[in-house]
Every structure is written in structure tokens, then in C-alpha cells.
Write a structure and sequence with these properties.
Number of helices: 29
Radius of gyration: 29 Å
Number of strands: 20
CATH class of the largest domain: Alpha Beta
CATH architecture of the largest domain: 3-Layer(aba) Sandwich
Strand order of the largest sheet: 2-1-3-8-7-4-5-6
CATH topology of the largest domain: Arginase, Chain A
Structural class: alpha/beta
Distance between the termini: 39 Å
Largest sheet: 8 strands, parallel
Length: 892
């Protein structure tokens, strides 16, 4: 059928729903609002002041420089009696060389090492420094080696004291600059490491606990209230744990290899049930890993299920990272398979917490290629560089899933994110087979002096070393060159021509409010405005919608024969506005996919996500986001696009357009109310998972309670991201993320009647920025309280620019939200194995399991800490081979 012939086809009825379920019309809505009492309006005004207090008070929260501190004095500490000792100066040199290769130092603010912290150190640390100084002043190779044998994995030379002091002062100098607002975040490249050092003992290459002293300094001198320490070194930081075990001001979180106590430091206290004491109960969180060869999928499961929810709930004033890279590919001490790029993702995902005040302090890491690349990727994340693209992540190892459920059980009563989980009676015969059993196992044995001082570490075979080195080189090529984050935006006044004299709530004032706030914050000077040429918006609309429908909308002089309460048409301006909105989103998409920008913002109206293939609905005529996705698929040959829709209304149009394809994953979080909430169809149900090739590529997260106390807000939306959005997104591994950014779930939007604050929308965007190599497009949809809208949309822009975001008040999710998540996960885990984590939690622990035969089996399988040379597990080499294949496929 020709275009001319199709123009004669009758216009579909505008605003028609797909169901006979009654819904409130716009006319009814206006009538109800006029009936409000003056007292109600006054309450609303009082509410507005409180709800926007954060939004209006953080205009000056703009990203500051990233700091780096290092000093060559730390090169002088080395083992004179064993030249192959893993903790050696080459670690430092390899990191510095890699950062220089990438020119990253030029992008950072170099921090001077201050040496005036003596009065701010704990008395126990001063005593340890004095002891270390005495040992180093009396240095003699043979005699000092005997002294070293009193300590586990320790050596000294005449420069050890000075290097240790420099490492400590470097750490304190970095956090001082962050706390005082000189820099946003930073990296301290230090050695010797510190997290094993105890108040009266040198241990595990460590003399003074750098991170522990930094936390003490921030609390006592800088007067910060709450510090979070995230320790991702493969060994448990028992020294840090002991420092703050009874202190609720410091939340210590450690993910480490454990193997039921058979892995160094072989301590019972490294297990998951050691959660703090006295005031510190619940503030010590161990994630002990009981298998080797674990990689990105396993660490991501811990991140989304445990670390992110707790970090957002704790809301620290600063986060300190004990950054060990011995879980990275190739490290013989860790025998794990975390990729260097993953560390950048971890930093990026946590950058929304603590107002972006992150301090990364080097700990371990003993395979130089992966150590250097891991630190480089960490620094790139701190600089807000575009993140590495990770291969699709699958289901976590069964031991990791077991441990996640263990932790949820022991921390159940302390954190709102876990309190919401139901607990079941272990004696319930009907539940016995499906209840998770929390069993504590410990087969370790602490070692006592004298300790080995030579050949007391694992080494790699030549074959495994070559394989891992080649893999890291391949990854470096895959990650590409350093690219700074750049953000573009599209806006045009012509989109204000679509207006209605009947004073509809979807008005040009929405657009104007957002853009005025955008300029007020001077975001227009920090983003690049792109021209909006005629990118054949009509042509691409016809490839997305039914041709005849688009033709009817765009024909000259068109006047609809039927109108509804949520649709209107202005013959003088509606066509111009509608096509301009489509062209704006297309232009932003083109700019991002052409490689000129990392991300983009489309400040557009009218919205689009309700527009179906042949039907206008819900203020929407053409589906802006769907047209952009179609353009990206066909013009740039993309295979995987993720559309995240957090407008409070289900995007029925977007869902229908892509319901049959696997090339677009549509994920919507929306108010549903058993199908009675607009658009009042069953399409928004969690059971709608796609069709044909698209089966599994449609994910609906519907909320079903309208009770006043069940209004969904910040906590529920953030939990939806942690439990559903991020895991599925990381398994899908999209090449582009497009956000249907509707803000009618925001506070005081009486069309939505939810309680999401403007800053929370910024946090949601921040959590998506690590996907698709940072290629992210935010396109404006709904939002009908202009105050909420203007703040919310611009928080999204600030997130894209890498600005620090204000703290959120996160509590226990509402029961109906929990039920919605459980329902969605139960349905979607058939398609997304990464969701297969949660189990039914028991009401108590199962007990301590200590069977001698089990001990012998585990010892023979894993071995003890070696006293001579051993090769890295061949299973790790096999895992690396598998990862190489994945990278090769992505290259192809």
C-alpha cells in the first residue's frame, strides 16, 4: 500500500484503552482536586518545603578533582633474603608505569604527602611504630630474619620504617583532602599494605593499618560520624575488623577467600557469623568465599544482594576501600578470576553513596599485569571515565549463593533490607526441603611462631603465567584507550507549541520548568548542546509504528475526529512539537552511538512510552524511545538494547513494539494495582515476559498497593534496582541503555501519588552508568508536578556528569514491594539465571558442623598455606581460557 493510499485509512480512536476496567479520567481528576479543602492545600505546601529541601540545598554539589598520592620512598622496602618475595617494589613500579602509559596522572590532582599526623594517631599505633623503628635501626640480614620469623609473612630491612610511615602518611593525606573538600575522591598507591596489621602485631606483609588509622583520623579529628570500609582484598583484613569490632561508627565489609578456615589467615573470626560486638553488632560483615576460581558474576552477586543495599542504608560520610587486587585474574595467592574491569564497575556503582567521597587505598595484588590493570581501571572509575564493557554475567557459584543467604540470615534483624525477608520454622515438615540451612564450618588452625621467612608463598607455573599474561594483554586491547565522560543534550523551544486551552496537565510549562532549572544549575555550560537536524523522524516513526498511523498524525491540516481527556491536538503546533521530540531523541542517540559522547539527555515533550504501533494514548503520540531504539538497531547494527522505564505508568506502547524481539530488553517499574491503574490493562503484569524470540526479554515490576502507608518511595525503587534491574542488566550486557525517564512517581505528583524524591532519580541513573560502556540516553517522559519534575530531571543530568549525589534515607522496603520483587524474581529466574540466589531463610542457625572426616577431605582438596613452591590451580587456568573465548566472541 502506498503512503498516499494509507492516508485515507480512518484515524484510530485516540486515547482508547485495551480494557473495560474503569480508570479515573483527567476531568474526574481535576474535579477531585477542586474539592480539596484549604487545609489540605496548606498541608501540601508544607510538605513541598520538606520534600525539596535536599534538592534545593545541594546546588553547589559539583564534581571536584580526583586526587592521587604516591611517593618513591616506598620503593626501598624489600626483602633482602628472598628476592622472589611477592610483596616487593615491582608491585609499585608496575602500577605507576601503567598509569603513566595511559596519561591518567595528568587528569588527577597530585597530593603532597603531609607528615604532621603524629598527634592524630592512636596510642597503639604509635607504640607499633616505635617497635618497628627499633627493629629497622638495628637491621642485620641474618639477625633481622630471625626477628621476622616471630611474625607471620613479614620481612624487614633498614628502610621498612620509613616506607611504612610514608604509606601511612600518604593515606592520611588523601583522606584529609577528601574530607576538607579539596578533591572529590582519590587513590593512594602505597606499600607496604596495612589491613592485616593488628594493634600489637605485624602480620601478613603489614606493619601499620593504613585504612584503620584513616578511619580513626576521620572520626576523631575531622569529626565525621560514619565511615564505611570495603575490603576486597582476597585475604580477610582481620586487623581492621579487630580495630572496629565494637564500634557502630565504622561499618567493616570484607569479601575474601576463606574455604571454611583453610585459607590464610585461617581464623574462625573471618567467618560470616562474626558480625560485631556490643554497639558494633551488625556493623561487621564478612563474606567468606569457600571456592576458588570465582569471578565477576560471583562478586556482582555479593555487590547487588549485600553490599549495595547495606551501603545505601548505612549512608556513610566517606567510604574507604582496602583495595587488594589478589582476587584478580592470575594472582597466585588468590586463585580467583575477577577481571580488572570489574573493579571499575564496583567503584562506579558505589560512587552514588557517601556523596561520592571515596578513598581507595592499595593493599595486596601479586600478579603484576592484573594488579597494574586493576588499579588503572579503578582510577579510571574515580575519574568518571567510561567503564569497561563486561561480558554477560551468569549465575553465581553455589557456594556464593549459599553464603549470601547465610549473611541475610545472620544480619536479618539489623538491616531493613534484610528484615523484609520472611523467616521459616526449621521444624516445619512442609518447608523442610526448601528452607535454606545455615551451617557454620571451620576447619582451620592458626599457625604459631616460628614462621617461614623464605619460599613461603605460592608461585605460578610458566604455562599458567603466560596464559594469564596474554589474557590481560587481550583485555587491555579490549578496554581501549582512556576516554573522558562527555554528555550531550537536546532541547528545542518548538516542543512548547503543543498546547491546549483546556489547561491539561501535560503542558509546555513542564518543559520550560526543566530547562530553566537546567540553565540555573549551569548544566548547559557543562553539557554540549547538539543541533537537531531533520533526522527523518517521520521516516523512523513509520519503521516503528504502523505507517498509516504516522501519516495521519503528520498530514498537513490534520484535525482528529475524536479526543479524550488525556489527549488533545493543536493544529498550529502539535505536529511540529511531536516531530521535534522524536528528532531530538534521534539526534541524541546518533551523537552517543557515533562515539562523540558517552551519554545524552533528551529534554522533550510530549512523552511517548504509551504510544502503541497504531494508537495514541496517555499524552503520547509517537513513541520517542522506541523510535530511537529502532534507529539504533538498524543504523548502528546493535544487537542488545536495554530500555529502563521508571515512569509510574506502565509503558504499554514500548512493550508492544518490542514484545517479540530479543534485541530489546524492556524493563518497567510501575504502579499497577491489579491492572486498574492507567493504562488499565493487564499488559503491565509480571507474567508478561515476551513472546516468540522475545520471550524473557520483557520484565515488569508492578506495585499493587494503593494504601496511604504503602506509597512506594526511595527505598522500594532502590531495592528494585539492586534486586532486579542491575542483575538482569548485567546478564543481558546491553550495548546501549535508554531510559524512559518519567517522574510521576515523584513526591507530590498527585497523578502518581508515590513518594520518590528527586535525588533518588539521580541515584537510579548513577546505578545504570556502569552498563554498556557508559552509553546511556535519558529521555523525558511523564511527571506532572513541575517542581518535582524540574529537580528530578536535572538530578539525572548531574548524575550523568558524575556529580556527587546527596544521601538518601533508606529503610525497610514496604511489604507489597517485597511481594512484588519475589513474584517477579520467581517468574524471571527461568530466563535470567543470575536471579537464582534467594532461598527461604530459616528462623535460626543449623549449628556448628565439625566432622573429622570432612576436615581431612577439605585439607586434601585445598591444602594448607604452603611452605614451599606450588603451582596455581589448573582450574583457574581453565577458567581463564573460558573467559578468553568470551572476549573473543565480543570482539567478533
Amino acid at each position: 500500500m502506498s503512503d498516499n493510499a494509507s492516508a485515507a485509512v480512518p484515524m484510530p480512536e485516540i486515547g482508547a484503552g485495551d480494557s473495560n476496567v474503569p480508570r479515573e479520567t483527567l476531568r474526574d481528576f481535576k474535579k477531585r482536586m477542586k474539592q480539596n479543602s484549604p487545609e489540605t492545600n496548606m498541608e501540601l505546601e508544607n510538605c513541598l518545603v520538606d520534600d525539596y529541601e535536599v534538592s534545593t540545598s545541594c546546588d553547589g554539589m559539583v564534581r571536584k578533582p580526583t586526587g592521587v598520592i604516591y611517593n618513591n620512598d616506598m620503593l626501598r622496602h624489600k626483602c633482602v633474603w628472598d628476592s622472589r618475595y611477592p610483596e616487593n617494589p615491582d608491585r609499585y613500579s608496575a602500577i605507576i608505569q601503567r598509569i603513566r602509559e595511559q596519561g591518567l596522572f595528568d587528569e588527577c590532582k597530585l597530593i603532597d604527602v603531609l607528615r604532621k599526623f603524629d598527634k592524630q594517631l592512636p596510642a597503639t599505633v604509635i607504640a607499633q611504630l616505635e617497635k618497628l623503628k627499633n627493629i629497622c635501626e638495628k637491621f642485620h640480614p641474618l639477625e633481622t630474619e630471625k626477628v621476622a620469623s616471630k611474625y607471620d609473612a613479614i620481612y624487614f630491612n633498614e628502610h621498612t620504617y620509613d616506607s611504612t610511615l610514608t604509606a601511612l602518611y600518604s593515606t592520611l593525606s588523601l583522606v584529609k583532602n577528601i574530607a576538607e573538600g579539596v578533591i572529590q575522591n582519590g587513590l593512594a598507591i602505597v606499600r607496604p599494605p596495612g589491613h592485616h596489621a593488628q594493634k600489637d602485631n605485624f602480620n601478613g606483609y603489614c606493619f601499620i593499618n593504613n585504612v584503620g588509622c584513616a578511619a580513626h583520623y576521620l572520626l576523631e579529628t575531622q569529626k565525621l560520624k560514619k565511615i564505611m570500609i570495603i575490603d576486597f582484598d582476597v585475604h580477610h583484613g582481620q586487623g581492621t575488623q579487630q580495630m572496629f569490632y565494637k564500634d557502630n561508627r565504622v561499618l567493616y565489609f570484607s569479601i575474601h577467600r576463606y574455604e571454611n578456615g583453610l585459607f590464610w589467615p585461617n581464623l574462625r573470626e573471618s567467618s560470616f557469623d562474626y558480625i560485631g560486638e556490643g554497639p558494633g553488632v551488625g556493623y561487621n560483615i564478612n563474606v567468606p568465599l569457600n571456592a576458588t576460581g570465582l569471578g565477576d558474576a560471583d562478586y556482582m552477586a555479593v555487590l547487588t544482594h549485600i553490599l549495595l543495599p547495606i551501603a545505601y542504608e548505612f549512608q556513610a560520610d566517606m567510604i574507604l576501600f582496602s583495595a587488594g587486587y589478589d582476587a584478580c585474574i592470575g594472582c597466585p595467592e588468590g586463585e580467583m578470576c575477577v577481571s580488572p574491569g570489574f573493579y571499575g564497575h564496583m567503584i562506579k556503582l558505589l560512587s552514588g553513596v557517601a556523596e561520592g567521597k571515596l578513598a581507595v587505598i592499595l593493599e595486596g595484588g601479586y600478579f603484576l599485569p592484573s594488579l597494574a590493570e586493576g588499579v588503572s581501571m579503578t582510577l579510571r572509575a574515580l575519574l568518571d571515565d567510561r567503564p569497561a564493557v563486561l561480558p554477560p554475567l551468569g549465575q553465581a557459584h553455589k557456594e556464593v549463593r549459599q553464603m549470601i543467604n547465610n549473611i541475610k540470615c545472620v544480619l536479618h534483624e539489623f538491616w531493613g533490607c534484610f528484615k523484609v525477608y520472611n523467616r521459616y520454622d526449621l521444624e516445619d515438615s512442609g518447608m523442610k526441603d526448601i528452607i535454606h540451612h545455615v551451617v557454620i564450618k571451620y576447619f582451620g588452625k592458626e599457625f604459631t611462631p616460628p614462621f617461614e621467612t623464605r619460599n613461603c608463598y605460592p608461585v605460578m607455573s610458566a604455562a599458567v603465567y603466560e596464559k594469564c599474561s596474554n589474557f590481560i594483554e587481550d583485555l587491555k586491547q579490549y578496554y581501549g584507550e582512556f576516554k573522558r565522560n562527555k554528555v550531550c543534550y537536546g532541547y528545542d523551544d518548538d516542543m512548547g507549541l503543543h498546547m491546549d486551552e483546556s489547561n491539561a496537565i501535560e503542558t509546555p510549562a513542564r518543559l520550560q520548568a526543566v530547562y530553566e532549572r537546567f540553565k540555573e544549575l549551569e548544566l548547559d555550560k557543562r553539557c554540549v548542546k547538539i543541533d537537531i537536524p531533520e533526522l527523518s523522524g517521520e521516516e523512523w516513526a513509520k519503521k516503528t509504528h504502523i505507517t498509516s498511523y504516522v501519516t495521519q498524525l503528520t498530514v498537513e491540516g490534520y484535525v482528529p475526529t475524536a479526543q479524550s481527556n488525556d489527549m488533545y491536538w493543536n493544529p498550529k503546533g502539535s505536529k511540529i512539537s511531536i516531530l521535534k521530540a522524536v528528532n531530538t531523541v534521534l539526534s541524541v542517540t546518533d551523537a552517543v552511538l557515533s562515539g562523540n559522547f558517552a551519554s545524552g539527555v533528551a529534554i522533550v515533550r510530549p512523552p511517548g512510552h504509551h504510544a502503541e504501533p497504531s494508537k495514541s494514548l496517555g499524552f503520547c503520540y509517537l513513541n520517542n524511545v522506541a523510535v530511537a531504539a529502532r534507529y539504533a538497531l538498524d543504523t548502528f547494527n546493535l544487537e542488545k538494547i536495554l530500555i529502563v522505564d521508571f515512569d509510574i505508568h506502565h509503558g504499554n506502547g514500548t512493550q508492544k513494539i518490542f514484545y517479540d524481539t530479543e534485541r530489546v530488553l524492556y524493563l518497567s517499574i510501575h504502579k499497577y494495582e491489579q491492572g486498574t491503574y492507567f493504562p488499565s490493562t493487564q499488559d503491565g503484569s509480571s507474567t508478561k515476559t515476551g513472546r516468540g524470540l522475545g520471550t524473557g526479554y520483557n520484565v515488569n515490576v508492578p506495585f499493587n498497593s494503593s494504601r496511604a502507608q504503602e506509597k512506594m518511595g526511595d527505598t522500594e525503587y532502590l531495592n528494585a534496582f539492586c534486586r532486579i534491574v542491575l542483575p538482569i542488566a548485567y546478564q543481558y550486557a546491553p550495548e546501549l541503555v535508554i531510559v524512559s525517564a518519567g517522574f510521576d512517581a515523584g513526591v507530590n505528583d498527585l497523578l502518581g501519588n508515590y513518594r520518590v524524591h528527586p535525588e533518588t532519580f539521580g541515584h537510579m541513573i548513577q546505578l545504570l552508568r556502569s552498563l554498556a560502556g557508559g552509553r546511556l540516553i535519558v529521555s523525558m517522559e511523564g511527571g506532572y508536578n513541575t517542581t518535582t519534575l524540574k529537580h528530578s530531571m536535572n538530578f539525572c543530568v548531574k548524575a550523568l556528569l558524575g556529580d556527587p549525589l546527596p544521601r538518601l534515607k533508606i529503610e525497610m522496603p514496604k511489604l507489597h514491594a517485597y511481594k512484588a520483587f519475589e513474584e517477579v524474581i520467581d517468574i524471571q529466574k527461568e530466563f535470567w539465571s543470575i536471579l537464582n540466589v534467594d532461598k527461604h531463610l530459616p528462623d535460626r542457625l543449623s549449628g556448628l558442623a565439625l566432622k573429622e572426616e570432612d576436615v581431612e577431605v577439605l585439607i586434601s582438596r585445598y591444602g594448607r598455606k604452603p611452605s614451599n613452591e606450588v603451582n596455581v590451580s589448573e582450574s583457574v587456568a581453565s577458567e581463564v581460557s573460558s573467559m578468553l573465548k568470551n572476549i573473543s566472541l565480543m570482539h567478533d
